[in-house]
Amino acid sequence: SIADNAGRGSGVIPAAGGGGKVIWADQAVVTVNTASTTSSTWTAIAGLSVTTNTLAETTSRLLIQWMVNAGGTLSGHNMRIMRDATPICVNTGSTGHQECTSQVFNTGNVSTMVCRSGSYIDTPGATTAVTYTIQWVVGPGGGTAYLNRTSDHGVSHNYPVGASTLLVTELAAN
Hints:
Layout: E1 22-30, E2 36-37, E3 43-51, E4 61-72, E5 77-83, E6 86-88, E7 102-105, E8 114-122, E9 131-137, E10 145-147, E11 164-171
Antiparallel strand pairs: 1-11, 2-10, 3-9, 4-8, 4-10, 4-11, 5-6, 5-7, 5-9
């Protein structure tokens, strides 16, 4: 018998609410440190992309969660989350600035790897499959951004290596 929080043995405890039920989840994980970019235009980070199933409802919500580890030379390397060809979860209220989800690397320390993580609930408003991707770009100061490693990639515990992930979960609206 299952008891509620008052100790009553009522059999089955009813679920609270109906929305938010997980319909499916998928993830992309990059555990190698071979990706880098010197591009001053937005470029997809190889391996950090998830294509959804056909969505269950037009009202479905998609929980997007990411963790990106990166190092770099110079500073100002940025990342953003894309739904197909549309940037999402980016600053849109500023003129003359690079609209991004987060700055990936900004310390200028060659033995530092920075972790940026976050989450966002997206509502595509359709049932067609969509692709979520993480892109990065090198800032106006130039340099190189490295995924899952420091820029000075010495063989020592002083130079960490990491993993990066992108998780997409479809949540039922009702």
